[in-house]
Amino acid sequence: MLALLVFEVFFSKRAWCRYACPIGLTYGVVGILSPLRIKYTLDDCFHESDCRKVCLVPHVLDTVIKGSAIHTEVPIGPDCTSCGLCIDTCPTGSLKFEVKGLSKLM
Ligand code: SF4
Ligand code: SF4
Predict the structure, then answer these.
(1) CA atoms within 13 Å, Cβ hemisphere of 8
(2) What separation in angstroms does the CA of 61 have from each of 2, 6, 11, 49?
């Protein structure tokens, strides 16, 4: 526990949630298998990070940080629970649900 605490404080915020929590792991597997995911589109993004403030796993939205996106359209990672809070919060529509394999939906 001490080692985990030290790692959490000095090396990685939310390390337990990201790398060790069995519930997080379950969400990750469900996220990989789910046909639904969130897609980020860079073009209209303000980069003010309102989406990251409401997300319970904000590391999945690191791509919205200015200069982080490696493509103009980025699928959000499997740790995302598809709760949709970021979509409701985003003022520009830069985050949308999509069905894997279908380019335009919703
Ligand atoms: S859908 Fe929910 S969990 Fe996924 S990125 Fe948006 S706010 Fe975070
Ligand atoms: S809320 Fe929308 S506009 Fe703001 S940083 Fe997130 S994706 Fe970009």
Answers:
(1) 12
(2) 29, 25, 19, 9
Indicate whether residue 80 lines ligand 1 (CB < 6 A): yes
2-58, pLDDT tens digit by residue?
887 787 788 776 677 667 778 777 777 877 888 889 999 999 999 999 999 999 889
Q: With a threshold of 0.85, does the pTM exceed it?
A: no
Q: Minimum-distance ligand to the CA of 75?
A: 1
- All domains of the chain in start order, with CATH: 2-99 (3.30.70.20)
Q: Is 60 in the pocket of ligand 2 (CB under 6 A)?
A: no
Residue with tokens 């980025």: 74
Is the alpha carbon torsion for 93, 65, 39, 80 positive or negative?
A: negative
Take atom 6 of ligand 1 and give the residue whose Cα is closest: 86
- Give yes or no for residue 68 CB within 6 A of ligand 2: no
* Residue nearest atom 4 of ligand 1, based on CA coordinates: 80
